Amino acid sequence: MKIELYIRSGCHLCEQMFHQLSDVLTPEQLTWVSVRDVDTRQEWFENYDTRIPVLKINGQLVCEYFLDTNRLQAILNGHDTSV
Q1: What is the DSSP string of 23-83?
Q2: At 56, which CATH number?
Q3: Is 68 exposed, middle or buried (0-12, 13-18, 19+ CB in 10 A)?
Q4: What is the pLDDT of residue 83?
Q5: Low-confidence ranges of the chain (pLDDT < 50)
Q6: Residue 33 contacts residue 25 (beta carbons within 8 Å)
Q7: Residue 35 to residues 7, 78, 79, Cα–Cα distance (Å)
Q8: So what's the pLDDT on residue 79?
Q9: Nearest partner of 67 among 79, 76, 55, judged by Cα
Q10: For the whole model, what pTM was predicted?
Q11: Structural domain containing residue 53
Q12: C-alpha–C-alpha distance, residues 74 and 12, integer Å
């Protein structure tokens, strides 16, 4: 499973989503999270600048701005096949 979290340094919503992920994911799953600062790559900046934080799993959008824990749990439990 490929988990990507697009953030910006100093963004309180980004920090909040990361901490919520830490509460929801197991330590092993947390190692799957690739944190990507949108200010470090032009493509990420163009795609996510005003939408951060953005959580994607296997390339599919899970949520923006706030963590959708219900959807995340459904995905992790194999009940959401859209990802």
Answers
A1: HHS-HHHHTTEEEEEGGG-HHHHHHHTTT-SEEEETTEEEEESS--HHHHHHHHTT--TT-
A2: 3.40.30.10
A3: middle
A4: 59
A5: none
A6: yes
A7: 7, 23, 25
A8: 82
A9: 55
A10: 0.91
A11: 3-76
A12: 26
